[in-house]
Amino acid sequence: MEVLVIGIAGGTGSGKTTIVRQILTQLPEGAAVVIPQDNYYRDNSEMPLEERQKLNFDHPDSIEWDLLCRHLETLRTGESVDMPHYSYLTCTRQAETTLLKPHPVLIVEGILCLSSKELRKRMDIKVYVDAPADDRLLRCIRRDIEERGRTLEAVQDRYYKTVQPMHTQFIEPSKAAADIIIPNDRRNQVAMDMIVARINMHLINTGQDKKA
Prior knowledge:
alpha/beta; 7 helices; five-stranded parallel beta sheet
Protein backbone atom coordinates (compact mmCIF):
# COMPACT_ATOMS: atom_id res chain seq x y z
CA MET A 1 0.00 0.00 0.00
CA GLU A 2 1.29 3.43 -0.96
CA VAL A 3 0.62 5.84 1.89
CA LEU A 4 0.24 9.62 1.87
CA VAL A 5 1.25 11.25 5.18
CA ILE A 6 -0.15 14.68 6.02
CA GLY A 7 1.05 16.72 9.00
CA ILE A 8 -1.25 19.38 10.44
CA ALA A 9 0.27 21.71 13.03
CA GLY A 10 -0.59 25.05 14.62
CA GLY A 11 -0.88 26.64 18.02
CA THR A 12 -3.15 25.46 20.82
CA GLY A 13 -6.72 26.41 19.92
CA SER A 14 -5.85 27.37 16.33
CA GLY A 15 -8.57 25.16 14.83
CA LYS A 16 -6.54 22.11 13.74
CA THR A 17 -9.22 19.64 14.78
CA THR A 18 -11.85 21.54 12.79
CA ILE A 19 -9.64 21.48 9.70
CA VAL A 20 -9.08 17.74 10.07
CA ARG A 21 -12.83 17.14 10.35
CA GLN A 22 -13.47 19.23 7.24
CA ILE A 23 -10.92 17.18 5.30
CA LEU A 24 -12.34 13.84 6.45
CA THR A 25 -15.90 14.77 5.44
CA GLN A 26 -14.72 15.25 1.85
CA LEU A 27 -12.88 11.93 1.53
CA PRO A 28 -14.17 8.42 0.75
CA GLU A 29 -15.03 6.44 3.86
CA GLY A 30 -12.02 4.58 5.18
CA ALA A 31 -9.51 6.52 3.11
CA ALA A 32 -7.81 8.27 6.04
CA VAL A 33 -7.08 7.89 9.71
CA VAL A 34 -5.99 10.56 12.21
CA ILE A 35 -2.99 10.07 14.48
CA PRO A 36 -3.07 12.66 17.29
CA GLN A 37 0.36 13.83 18.40
CA ASP A 38 -1.05 14.14 21.93
CA ASN A 39 -1.36 10.34 22.17
CA TYR A 40 2.43 10.17 22.15
CA TYR A 41 3.18 12.25 25.23
CA ARG A 42 5.85 10.53 27.31
CA ASP A 43 4.65 8.38 30.17
CA ASN A 44 5.29 10.19 33.47
CA SER A 45 3.51 7.76 35.77
CA GLU A 46 6.58 7.49 38.01
CA MET A 47 6.04 11.11 39.10
CA PRO A 48 3.62 12.27 41.80
CA LEU A 49 0.43 13.78 40.33
CA GLU A 50 1.29 17.26 41.63
CA GLU A 51 4.57 17.20 39.71
CA ARG A 52 2.98 15.76 36.57
CA GLN A 53 0.47 18.61 36.49
CA LYS A 54 3.36 21.08 36.34
CA LEU A 55 4.99 19.48 33.29
CA ASN A 56 5.46 21.57 30.17
CA PHE A 57 3.37 19.76 27.56
CA ASP A 58 4.10 22.40 24.92
CA HIS A 59 7.82 21.62 24.70
CA PRO A 60 9.02 19.19 21.99
CA ASP A 61 10.76 17.06 24.63
CA SER A 62 7.35 16.10 26.05
CA ILE A 63 6.63 13.95 22.96
CA GLU A 64 8.03 10.46 22.31
CA TRP A 65 8.95 11.23 18.71
CA ASP A 66 10.83 7.99 18.18
CA LEU A 67 7.72 5.94 18.89
CA LEU A 68 5.54 8.11 16.65
CA CYS A 69 8.03 7.85 13.78
CA ARG A 70 8.31 4.08 14.23
CA HIS A 71 4.55 3.73 14.09
CA LEU A 72 4.38 5.76 10.88
CA GLU A 73 7.05 3.58 9.29
CA THR A 74 5.23 0.43 10.39
CA LEU A 75 1.94 1.65 8.94
CA ARG A 76 3.71 2.51 5.68
CA THR A 77 4.81 -1.12 5.38
CA GLY A 78 1.21 -2.28 5.67
CA GLU A 79 1.32 -3.47 9.27
CA SER A 80 -0.88 -2.38 12.17
CA VAL A 81 0.32 -0.65 15.36
CA ASP A 82 -0.99 -0.29 18.90
CA MET A 83 -1.50 3.46 19.25
CA PRO A 84 -1.12 4.67 22.84
CA HIS A 85 -3.54 6.95 24.67
CA TYR A 86 -2.82 9.76 27.12
CA SER A 87 -4.98 11.12 29.92
CA TYR A 88 -4.97 14.85 30.59
CA LEU A 89 -6.66 14.23 33.92
CA THR A 90 -3.89 12.01 35.33
CA CYS A 91 -1.09 13.21 32.99
CA THR A 92 -0.08 9.61 32.29
CA ARG A 93 -0.14 7.20 29.37
CA GLN A 94 -3.08 4.83 29.64
CA ALA A 95 -2.87 1.04 29.76
CA GLU A 96 -5.31 0.61 26.87
CA THR A 97 -4.24 1.13 23.26
CA THR A 98 -6.06 1.33 19.92
CA LEU A 99 -5.21 -1.06 17.10
CA LEU A 100 -4.44 1.24 14.19
CA LYS A 101 -4.62 -0.43 10.78
CA PRO A 102 -2.89 0.86 7.63
CA HIS A 103 -4.84 3.43 5.59
CA PRO A 104 -4.08 5.10 2.25
CA VAL A 105 -3.86 8.46 4.05
CA LEU A 106 -2.38 9.12 7.50
CA ILE A 107 -3.09 12.51 9.08
CA VAL A 108 -0.77 13.40 11.97
CA GLU A 109 -2.22 16.31 13.94
CA GLY A 110 -0.72 18.28 16.82
CA ILE A 111 0.79 21.58 17.89
CA LEU A 112 4.40 20.41 17.52
CA CYS A 113 4.10 18.18 14.44
CA LEU A 114 6.25 20.42 12.25
CA SER A 115 8.86 21.08 14.95
CA SER A 116 10.32 17.57 14.66
CA LYS A 117 12.76 17.22 11.77
CA GLU A 118 12.51 13.42 11.80
CA LEU A 119 8.73 13.53 11.68
CA ARG A 120 8.74 16.12 8.89
CA LYS A 121 10.90 13.77 6.79
CA ARG A 122 8.02 11.30 6.82
CA MET A 123 5.39 13.83 5.69
CA ASP A 124 4.27 14.32 2.10
CA ILE A 125 2.17 17.42 2.86
CA LYS A 126 2.86 19.81 5.73
CA VAL A 127 0.03 22.12 6.84
CA TYR A 128 0.10 24.92 9.41
CA VAL A 129 -3.16 26.33 10.79
CA ASP A 130 -2.66 29.97 11.77
CA ALA A 131 -4.91 31.90 14.13
CA PRO A 132 -4.69 35.14 16.18
CA ALA A 133 -3.42 34.74 19.75
CA ASP A 134 -6.67 36.09 21.27
CA ASP A 135 -8.74 33.50 19.43
CA ARG A 136 -6.40 30.71 20.48
CA LEU A 137 -6.55 31.79 24.13
CA LEU A 138 -10.36 31.81 24.19
CA ARG A 139 -10.56 28.36 22.60
CA CYS A 140 -7.89 27.05 24.97
CA ILE A 141 -9.80 28.32 28.02
CA ARG A 142 -13.09 26.79 26.87
CA ARG A 143 -11.54 23.42 25.94
CA ASP A 144 -9.42 22.99 29.09
CA ILE A 145 -12.31 23.86 31.39
CA GLU A 146 -14.92 21.74 29.60
CA GLU A 147 -12.80 18.75 28.53
CA ARG A 148 -9.84 18.63 30.89
CA GLY A 149 -11.39 19.66 34.19
CA ARG A 150 -9.16 22.68 34.78
CA THR A 151 -10.11 25.91 36.50
CA LEU A 152 -10.04 29.27 34.74
CA GLU A 153 -7.13 30.36 36.93
CA ALA A 154 -5.15 27.19 36.12
CA VAL A 155 -5.74 27.59 32.39
CA GLN A 156 -4.66 31.23 32.39
CA ASP A 157 -1.59 30.47 34.49
CA ARG A 158 -0.53 27.64 32.15
CA TYR A 159 -1.19 29.72 29.04
CA TYR A 160 1.06 32.59 30.04
CA LYS A 161 3.78 30.46 31.67
CA THR A 162 4.16 27.71 29.05
CA VAL A 163 1.67 27.78 26.17
CA GLN A 164 2.44 31.24 24.80
CA PRO A 165 6.25 31.13 25.38
CA MET A 166 6.50 27.68 23.75
CA HIS A 167 4.35 28.88 20.87
CA THR A 168 6.80 31.72 20.26
CA GLN A 169 9.87 29.51 20.64
CA PHE A 170 8.85 26.31 18.83
CA ILE A 171 5.43 26.34 17.18
CA GLU A 172 5.35 29.67 15.33
CA PRO A 173 8.84 29.10 13.83
CA SER A 174 7.72 25.68 12.53
CA LYS A 175 5.35 27.51 10.19
CA ALA A 176 8.35 28.07 7.90
CA ALA A 177 8.40 24.32 7.18
CA ALA A 178 4.77 24.25 6.01
CA ASP A 179 3.73 23.66 2.41
CA ILE A 180 0.31 25.20 3.07
CA ILE A 181 -0.64 27.83 5.67
CA ILE A 182 -4.34 28.09 6.49
CA PRO A 183 -5.48 31.37 8.11
CA ASN A 184 -8.24 30.08 10.36
CA ASP A 185 -9.79 33.51 10.95
CA ARG A 186 -10.93 33.71 7.32
CA ARG A 187 -12.62 31.42 4.79
CA ASN A 188 -10.14 28.70 3.90
CA GLN A 189 -12.04 26.77 1.23
CA VAL A 190 -9.32 27.26 -1.40
CA ALA A 191 -6.69 25.70 0.86
CA MET A 192 -9.10 22.90 1.79
CA ASP A 193 -9.81 22.20 -1.88
CA MET A 194 -6.07 22.00 -2.59
CA ILE A 195 -5.50 19.47 0.19
CA VAL A 196 -8.50 17.32 -0.70
CA ALA A 197 -7.60 17.41 -4.42
CA ARG A 198 -4.06 16.25 -3.60
CA ILE A 199 -5.41 13.39 -1.50
CA ASN A 200 -7.88 12.29 -4.16
CA MET A 201 -5.11 12.40 -6.78
CA HIS A 202 -3.05 10.09 -4.57
CA LEU A 203 -5.96 7.69 -4.16
CA ILE A 204 -6.63 7.59 -7.91
CA ASN A 205 -2.97 7.30 -8.95
CA THR A 206 -2.38 4.42 -6.55
CA GLY A 207 -5.66 2.67 -7.40
CA GLN A 208 -6.88 3.05 -3.84
CA ASP A 209 -9.89 5.21 -4.60
CA LYS A 210 -12.04 2.12 -5.10
CA LYS A 211 -10.64 0.31 -2.09
CA ALA A 212 -11.16 3.21 0.29
